[in-house]
Amino acid sequence: MSKMFDRKVIDKATEENIVYTLDDVIDGVEIEIAPMRQLGEGRWDKKLKQQLVDLSEADNYEEAKDEWKATGNCWWGYPDDPRRTPPDWMANQHIGHCLCGHIVYYHFEIENTVNGHKDVVGSDHIHAFMIVRAVSEEFGVDVNAVTERMIQQWLAVRVKGMINDAWWYANGDEFHDIFEEIKELDLRINVTTHPNKKYWDRELRQFRPVTYLRKRGSGKGAMRQLASIVWRWNHPDNSRRQIDTRGWPNAKLWKDMNLFSARLEDHIETDEKLKKAIDDRLEYIDKLDRSSRMRIAESYKRSEEAGKFSEQCVLFDIPEFNHKAKRVDRKDELFLLSLHHKIMTSTPDRIVFTPRDMDKLKEVMERINQPLATQEDLTELRRLKKIFRERNMGSRIRVPRIAYQVTIQQRIENLTRRIERDIEDEENQRGRYHPDNRGRYFANFRNV
Questions:
Q1: For the whole model, what pTM was predicted?
Q2: Which has the closest alpha carbon to 100: 182, 39, 26, 163?
Q3: Rounded Cα gap, residues 245 and 174, in angstroms
């Protein structure tokens, strides 16, 4: 693993011009090359100062340093690596070592503008004073007008391509193997579901939720939800895909790819469950078609409309209903009448009914199929209505046209609470032992 330099890690989202170093790109860390204005007093800095003086016309460092400038040539490579061929300008240079003698991977060419001598330094020693003259000549500005931003732009242009080559050299084969392994699963697993939108699936004959590739991850740790890898790397709809904007994956994408690959068995299991659900649905539809033929034939015997409605219900896998049934109240009857028309006018290419209609139909069918109120429930409700009127608590208690048991029992519970509360309020106002409160109303209420 390559050496990491002690430099400040910066956030790509907050910086426009970022330069990446090979020493940490291989490890997946993005670091800014911040050239120092002056050499320090460390071991390697002292050696570089001496070397610069020995190769300059001046006999002291302060004057000698002004003779040097960066040429703009840069190359990365390892000593004696048969896979990396140095460029011509590196032919007579010390590959793998800075002018100071330190081991390096990046090689930046510098030139003495007085005697023409050329040499190479590493990323630690490509100092600002060497770049300033090159920037001044390239941009046509005075040396004193060169800013840090100009220096970083100069470095970014020259280093980015080198880092791109370096990253692919170190990780290219592994990247391609992982990406080919996970790309299809990523498009099915790393998705997010729209909370409301649905679409009609003709093959499965049902509304299915609309899904999108996940653009932003969430959670922490190994079980977190990842943003889509394909979306970030090379999806054609992503104008900021990294294959074009960077040329190699950033540290987060590379880390997420390795995490997704490590959990590949879990993702395959999840994908198989999704496929099984689809297979089960297709098997159900096949059985539905075969088992509904006789029912459709019986419906056609009743009328042409009834037969067509049965066919439509089978086609869209909707439970068949009778909107004119006696157990349907007026509100539900209007809904079923409207839905009947929508189903009859729908085609596989043009669905008129909506997911909300299907949810409402389920509620209505559950209500229609629930039991009616018993005679005991109705008797109790009439008794409570009588007490209600005697106590002058109101004159009208609405009873639905269709007396479902759950509805009547709710009315009984509500009336009971209101009568008990009224009796309690009367006691508090007149006193518990008042002659008129000796249990007369309690007796009537409890039917004692």
A1: 0.58
A2: 39
A3: 21
